């Protein structure tokens, strides 16, 4: 989730309106906009309703007057939260960097290594190999000053996938292949499938709603696998080498 606050007067004064998601018409809430504060996320603001007219990209920070976002007037009539992730070659957000706001199947032309990442908005899966292959890691909004922070094994990041936001999550797990054996339906995170359901292996999934991250060990540790809505009849269909599953987490940017 993001947070942006619009103020009618300069210097963050006057009537204000807070927003945490896309808004197609801000006119009922603001007569004008002369300053903006972005607490989290990256945003595109528009001079007209329905995401029309001149537009301006804002990242986290303070904008005490509309010249600070290179605006031409005090008109802000709609806004959109923009997914945003930045990859840095060196630790601590140093060195050459590359910004991304959507899926990218091959990041190799833009940086040779990745030792830190900043996620301003959105949930992402990053992959050690191009074309969404190899070990994968789930990232939500936050700062990752070195690759150990995302449980990475190396400084290789070669592709990334933006995970769509969904408001509901539901999946069914089965202890046998092809949806056979005992079945359990889950709608919340589960830190230990063995403790809660006495499952140490899961051989098939039916993801009914939302995107999920599967971990091979309890407490969200070990290899990770992204599960999108759909059917998984055998463990190799989600990319695993065996049926070990320790924990499951909804792919959302808050818990």
Automatic annotation (TrEMBL):
Q: What Pfam families does the entry give?
A: Crystall (PF00030)
The Beta/gamma crystallin 'Greek key' domain covers: 2-40, 41-83, 83-121, 122-164, 169-209, 210-252
The organism's superkingdom is given as: Eukaryota
User: Which InterPro entries does this chain map to?
Assistant: Beta/Gamma-Crystallin, Beta/gamma_crystallin, G_crystallin-like
Q: Which UniProt keywords apply?
A: Eye lens protein, Repeat
Which GO molecular function annotation, any one, does this entry have?
Answer: structural constituent of eye lens
Answer whether the UniProt record assigns the keyword Magnesium to this protein: no
What does the entry give for GO biological process? lens development in camera-type eye; visual perception
* General function of this protein: Crystallins are the dominant structural components of the vertebrate eye lens.
| Record-stated family | Belongs to the beta/gamma-crystallin family.
This chain's protein is named Beta/gamma crystallin 'Greek key' domain-containing protein
Say which species the protein is native to.
Ovis ammon polii
């Amino acid at each position: 989730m993001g947070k942006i606050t619009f103020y009618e007067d300069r210097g963050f004064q006057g009537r204000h309106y807070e927003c945490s998601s896309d808004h197609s018409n801000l006119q009922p809430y603001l007569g004008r906009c002369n300053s903006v504060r972005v607490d989290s996320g990256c945003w595109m603001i528009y001079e007209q309703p329905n995401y029309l007219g001149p537009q301006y990209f804002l990242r986290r920070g303070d904008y005490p007057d509309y010249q600070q976002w290179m605006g031409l007037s005090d008109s802000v009539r709609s806004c959109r939260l923009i997914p945003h992730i930045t990859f840095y070659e060196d630790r601590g957000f140093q060195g050459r960097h590359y910004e991304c706001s959507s899926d990218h199947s091959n990041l190799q032309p833009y940086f040779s290594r990745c030792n830190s990442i900043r996620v301003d908005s959105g949930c992402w899966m990053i992959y050690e190999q191009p074309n969404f292959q190899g070990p994968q890691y789930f990232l939500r909004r936050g700062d990752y000053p070195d690759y150990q922070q995302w449980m990475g094994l190396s400084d290789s990041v070669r592709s990334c996938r933006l995970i769509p936001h969904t408001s509901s999550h539901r999946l069914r797990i089965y202890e046998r292949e092809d949806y056979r054996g005992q079945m359990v339906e889950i709608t919340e995170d589960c830190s230990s499938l063995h403790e809660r359901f006495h499952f140490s292996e899961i051989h098939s999934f039916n993801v009914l709603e939302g995107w999920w991250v599967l971990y091979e060990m309890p407490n969200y540790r070990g290899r990770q696998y992204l599960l999108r809505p759909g059917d998984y009849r055998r463990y190799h269909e989600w990319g695993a080498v065996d049926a070990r599953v320790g924990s499951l987490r909804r792919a959302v940017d808050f818990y």
